[in-house]
# Entry
Amino acid sequence: MQKVMMGNHALSWGALLSRAEVIAAYPITPQTEVVELLSNMCADGSLKAEFIKVESEHSAMAASMGASAAGARTFTATSAQGLALMHEVLHWATGARLPIVMGNINRAMAPPWTIWTEQTDSIAQRDTGWIQIYTSSIQEILDSVIQAYKVAEQIYIPAMIVLDSFVLSHTNENCEVPDQDKVDAYLPRFENAYKLDTEKPAAFGGLTGPDWYYELRYKIERDIQKALPLFEETGKEFEEMFGRYYGLIETYKLDDADVVLVTSASIASTARPVIDQMRSEGHKVGLIRIRVFRPFPSELLRKLLSGRKKVLVVDRNISFGMSGAFYAEVKAALYNVKGRPPMWGYIAGLGGRDVPMDVIKGMIEQTMKEDHPTQDIIWIGVKR
Amino acid sequence: MRYTIPEQEIMCAGHKACQGCGATLAMRYALKALGPKTMLTLPACCWSVIDGPFPYSSVGVPLFHTAFETAAAVASGIRAGLDMRGDTETNVVAWAGDGGTFDIGIQALSGTVERNDNVIYVCYDNEAYMNTGVQRSSATPWGAVTSTTPPRHFKQERKKDMMAIMAAHGIPYTASASVAYAEDLIRKVNKAKQIPGSKFLHIIAPCPPGWRSSPEITIQLARLVVQTHMFPLYEIYEGRYYKLSMDPKKKPLTEYLKPQGRFRHLTEEQVAEIDRQVDERYARLKEQAERSKPWFEAKKEKKD
# Structure
């Protein structure tokens, strides 16, 4: 079925097709349409789920944990302040090994009050142990919900699907809605092997000393690393069934590129025609869109970026006192590689500032002009 | 006398509680009534230590440890998850201390009971943050000394009326209980099991280290707190209809206060102030119970 829908509704449709059984959510702009549509889906019976209309995002994640621990497939969605309020419980969901899937609409953090897009909200949660998928189209949002459950439930690690506020959340695109029976074949019913069970009573999350805590953390890291091959495997399987592939990254005109632009989310969509334009002007430029930020695809990036002449990373987020997060992590991944290219780090589009084609082109041209980067953050068009 | 307390022990020995811990008795009795088809969620509280370190547990039912503010919300989630998988029978119980109920957990609790989610919320109340070393909570009574309300600046605020707050949500069943009255406590847990919707049980649980009392008088204190009208035992149906579980002749307040180090500093005038507060509250409660009588009689007639 073809359907024109907004990014937020793509999340709802993803949850519907994944047969989410419990939804616990609290409204926040720009996420509200996700939960409104899910409420309607529950009300008209098209989605057989219990929707817990909680009193806060903190409780949204807490109730999601309870439902997942009881063995149900669980979905929630939030944004910015709501995600920040969840912070404590995000750690808990990972430690409790509950494969909850959540949509997060990237909105800049207050103050000052703002509702426009920026990734700092989700970047601030990168150390909670959640898988993070940064999407760049409405179709990808819908498909990513289904794939996220498939990955998360195999390794008992929760997953976050991230989309730009308004640019994706409120933009309508034509979308292929997969057939339910095919989704059912791709994504079997969730069986939580470690659920709360009165036949096998056990305590989960009790006081643990230094003699075991270390091992439990090791196991989380070991298992989230399994997501790297799993995204490629489940992506291929998805492609066989639905004709669309989703892996860790997406490349565009990369093969012979001397200068590579690395970015994420909707900026990557704008960058594609810039690459085309500059190619037609004779420049060997290419693009990498990082889709899965946690776990970070370090090995793949080492393979694709070593030996290039120059790399520029465009971040729509900032880790104050350091740099953009994608820039810092790409640099870190390549540090021990022979022939690592010099890297430029641009910060653009904070608080929803538009990042049009000419701005992206300007960043590539500046990179080509300079021999070496001279600063960790290059600001674009900032009013000083 | 008929023996009304189930013999089955679901809680086991070897737990990590202090000597004379009232919270431990509360769990033991409650589990006897709840039975093995029960799931517990515990926020940070004494019981998150009492149950034992990983991988041990002292309760013979599944237990989900959770963050301080989240017991009620997690219970709502477990209920929804079980319901969706076709299990509407298992009791879902949030088991929290007074800090996790009166203070940091009150928002999630209000959310859960406002939705009338089908869970039992039990607050075992030892009247301060005992697990972290006896800091005052909003459940600490007026006049008490804690590590954050020293004798020269003892607690100047009255104990929050959590029962009234729960009743104001209009939930089907709210009840107070004491570990000294095991039959009454078990009867109330059994009632909570049978009523659909949100149930709130408020159990007073003496804490020897926190109350600075001898472990061997825990039961005595848990009885005196009721007999002095400091902690009356009553039920509230539908958030409106009050019923006193017992109406003991009031014993002198000093019998309850004196054995506890946390009240040792109080002057006669200050004890009189507590007495005044206790009488005022008890009179209000009796009035509410009196006004509710026709409702209970009508209910009884309906049954007959």
